[in-house]
C-alpha cells in the first residue's frame, strides 16, 4: 500500500504520509552559452581533435570547453564526467560509447561502430543498439541505457560490457531479478550506488539495487501525467536526477517533477 494524502490544488503539489510525494518542480532560470565554433574528434574514427573555450553565463563566469565533432556525430545522447576529467559520451546512432580525454583525444570505450547488436564482451567486441545516458557508478563502472535492446548495460574499468538489468531485445514491464524494461532513455546513480532508470515507453522510474528491479514512481505501462501520492503517474520519462537520498527529479516532455520517498 502506498501512503495517501490530500492534494494542494493551489500549488499543484501533493503530499502524502511519511513524506512520499510526486510534485511539479519550480521553474529555474536557464543557463545560456555562446555557440561553439571549434570542434573535437570525428564521427567514426578515434584521434586527436580541437576544443575552444566559451564563457558560461553562470555566476562564477567560468570558461567551459565545449566538446563537438568535426563531422556530424551519430546523434550523441548523454554524457558524464569521471574523476580524471574524461567524458564518456553515448554516440547513439553509431551504437558506441566514446570517451573524450582531457588532452582532446577521442577513443571508443565500448561497442562496434555502425554495427548494432546485443552482445556482451570486451571493448569493440560488445554491441549496443541506440545507447544513451552513460552514468558513473562504483569503481569506475559506467551504466548505459541500451535503448534499442531494452536493457541497462555496464562497462567496467577493463572495458568489459555486461547486462546489468533487463533481457536483451525483450521489452516488458516485469520487476525482479529477471525484470523487463522498454526503450530506456536516462539513468541516474545516487550516492549509495543505487541505479535509477527512466523507462520511457513504460512511463515509469525503475530502481535497480544490485540488479533487482522495482518500479517506484508511476505505474509501468500507464501513459498519464498525474502528480500525487506515490507511485503517481508519469508520461515518457526523458530525464532523471538523484540529487540526494530519498529524492528523485524525473522529467517528462511537459514537466519537471520531484519525487520524495524511501528510495
Features:
263 residues; mainly beta; Neuraminidase; five-stranded antiparallel sheet; globular; disordered N terminus
Q: Would you kindly provide a written description of the structure presented here, covering whatever features stand out?
A:
The chain has 263 residues and is mainly beta. The chain has a single domain, classed as Neuraminidase (6 Propeller). 0% of the residues lie in helices and 37% in strands. Strands 4-10-9-8-7 form a 5-stranded antiparallel sheet, with no helix packed on it. The protein is globular and about 45 Å long.
Named CATH topology: Neuraminidase
Pick out the low-confidence regions.
1-19, 26-72
Query: Could you tell me the radius of gyration in angstroms?
Result: 19 Å
Q: How many domain modules?
A: 1
Count of β-strands: 22
Q: Architecture, CATH level 2?
A: 6 Propeller
Blueprint of the fold:
Blueprint: E1 7-8, E2 13-14, E3 21-24, E4 47-48, E5 53-55, E6 63-65, E7 76-79, E8 87-91, E9 96-100, E10 105-110, E11 121-122, E12 131-136, E13 142-146, E14 151-155, E15 160-165, E16 184-189, E17 195-199, E18 204-208, E19 214-217, E20 239-244, E21 247-252, E22 255-260
Amino acid at each position: 500500500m502506498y501512503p495517501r494524502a490530500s492534494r494542494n490544488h493551489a500549488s499543484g503539489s501533493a503530499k502524502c504520509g511519511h513524506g512520499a510525494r510526486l510534485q511539479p518542480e519550480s521553474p529555474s532560470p536557464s543557463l545560456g552559452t555562446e555557440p561553439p565554433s571549434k570542434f573535437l574528434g570525428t564521427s567514426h574514427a578515434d584521434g586527436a581533435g580541437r576544443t575552444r573555450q566559451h564563457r558560461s553565463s553562470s555566476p562564477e563566469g567560468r570558461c567551459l570547453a565545449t566538446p563537438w565533432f568535426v563531422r556530424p556525430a551519430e546523434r550523441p545522447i548523454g554524457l558524464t564526467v569521471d574523476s580524471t576529467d574524461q567524458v564518456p559520451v553515448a554516440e547513439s546512432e553509431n551504437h558506441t560509447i566514446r570517451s573524450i580525454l582531457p588532452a582532446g583525444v577521442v577513443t571508443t570505450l565500448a561497442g562496434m561502430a555502425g554495427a548494432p547488436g546485443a552482445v556482451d564482451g570486451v571493448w569493440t567486441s560488445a554491441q549496443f543498439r541506440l545507447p544513451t545516458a552513460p552514468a558513473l557508478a562504483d569503481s569506475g563502472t559506467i551504466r548505459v541505457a541500451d535503448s534499442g535492446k531494452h536493457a541497462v548495460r555496464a562497462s567496467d574499468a577493463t572495458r568489459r560490457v555486461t547486462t546489468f538489468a533487463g533481457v536483451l531485445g525483450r521489452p516488458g514491464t516485469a520487476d525482479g531479478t529477471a525484470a523487463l524494461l522498454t526503450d530506456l532513455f536516462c539513468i541516474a546513480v545516487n550516492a549509495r550506488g543505487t541505479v535509477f532508470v527512466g523507462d520511457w515507453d513504460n512511463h515509469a522510474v525503475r530502481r535497480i539495487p544490485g540488479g533487482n528491479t522495482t518500479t517506484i514512481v508511476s505505474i509501468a505501462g500507464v501513459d498519464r501525467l498525474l502528480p500525487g501520492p506515490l507511485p503517481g503517474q508519469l508520461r515518457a520519462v526523458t530525464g532523471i536526477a538523484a540529487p540526494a537520498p530519498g529524492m528523485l527529479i524525473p522529467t517528462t516532455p511537459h514537466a519537471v517533477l520531484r519525487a520524495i520517498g524511501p528510495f
